[in-house]
């Protein structure tokens, strides 16, 4: 009964008992976090493998093509700018997901997740952390795929075979894979994020 009263009196999700969150973060729920992370990285890996495969197979066919150098230079600059903007924007949005204003709003209303309505405060916290992580990774994924697309364009025009330095456009993809590996969501890591970003932020 006391749990019901405490939920009714709750004004922010930062007031949720940490032990309640620990109970809700089951191994199955952690696997969902991990599956999403692997899927995000897997798409980039597949794209990279395709690029490297065709690069290794097609260099002789385009040995004498030289067009598109100016376009590649401009697109490479665009890749760098987009990556920087994406990195900054992703971090801003990620941090904003845990603002006290949002935590108060989430505490007062149900939260929708994959077609279901989440009312339990501890479940809401886990859902918020998952969505924030996916959003941050997706934003930078866009920059990574943009850079890889430029590599494809460079191979199609032949310039990449003559100027392999334009493979610099693949750097955002490698950085994203590194970030996905570093932030791979183990149960302890997810709980640490919840503790630092939400519970201890009150």
Plain-language structure description:
The chain contains 9 helices and 2 strands. The chain is an all-alpha fold. Strand 1 (about 110-115) and strand 2 (about 115-120) form a beta hairpin. Helix 2 packs across helix 6 (about 120-155), helix 3 runs parallel beside helix 6 (about 120-155) and helix 3 (about 25-60) packs antiparallel against helix 8 (about 170-180). The longest helix is centred in the last third of the chain and has 37 residues, at about 120-155. The protein is elongated and about 60 Å long.
Describe the structure concisely for a colleague.
This protein is 74% helix and 3% strand.
Kindly list the characteristics that best describe this protein.
mainly alpha; single chain; 202 residues; 9 helices; two-stranded antiparallel sheet
What is the strand and helix layout of this fold?
Elements: H1 2-9, H2 18-24, H3 27-58, H4 69-96, H5 100-108, E1 111-113, E2 116-118, H6 121-157, H7 159-162, H8 171-182, H9 187-199
Antiparallel strand pairs: 1-2
Helix pairs in contact: 2-6, 3-6, 3-8, 4-6, 6-8
The strands making up the biggest β-sheet line up spatially as 1-2
User: What is the SS-derived class?
Assistant: mainly alpha
Shape: elongated
Low-confidence stretches: 1-8
Mean model confidence by pLDDT: 85
Distance between the termini: 24 Å
DSSP strand (E) fraction?
Answer: under 5%
Biggest pleated-sheet summary: 2 strands, antiparallel
| Share in helix | over 70%
What's the helix count? 9
């Amino acid at each position: 009964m006391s749990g019901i009263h405490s939920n009714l009196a709750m004004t922010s999700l930062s007031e949720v008992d940490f032990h309640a969150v620990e109970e809700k973060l089951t191994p199955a729920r952690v696997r969902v976090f991990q599956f999403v992370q692997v899927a995000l990285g897997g798409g980039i890996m597949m794209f990279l493998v395709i690029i490297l495969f065709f690069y290794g197979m097609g260099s002789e066919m385009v040995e004498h093509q030289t067009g598109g150098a100016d376009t590649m230079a401009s697109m490479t600059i665009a890749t760098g700018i987009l990556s920087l903007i994406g990195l900054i924007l992703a971090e801003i949005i990620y941090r904003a997901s845990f603002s006290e204003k949002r935590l108060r709003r989430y505490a007062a209303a149900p939260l929708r997740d994959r077609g279901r309505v989440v009312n339990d405060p501890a479940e809401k916290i886990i859902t918020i952390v998952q969505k924030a992580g996916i959003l941050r990774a997706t934003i930078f994924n866009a920059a990574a795929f943009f850079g890889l697309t430029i590599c494809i364009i460079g191979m199609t025009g032949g310039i990449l075979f003559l100027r392999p330095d334009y493979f610099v456009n693949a750097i955002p993809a490698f950085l994203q894979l590194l970030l996905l590996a570093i932030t791979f969501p183990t149960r302890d890591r997810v709980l640490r994020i919840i503790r630092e970003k939400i519970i201890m932020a009150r």
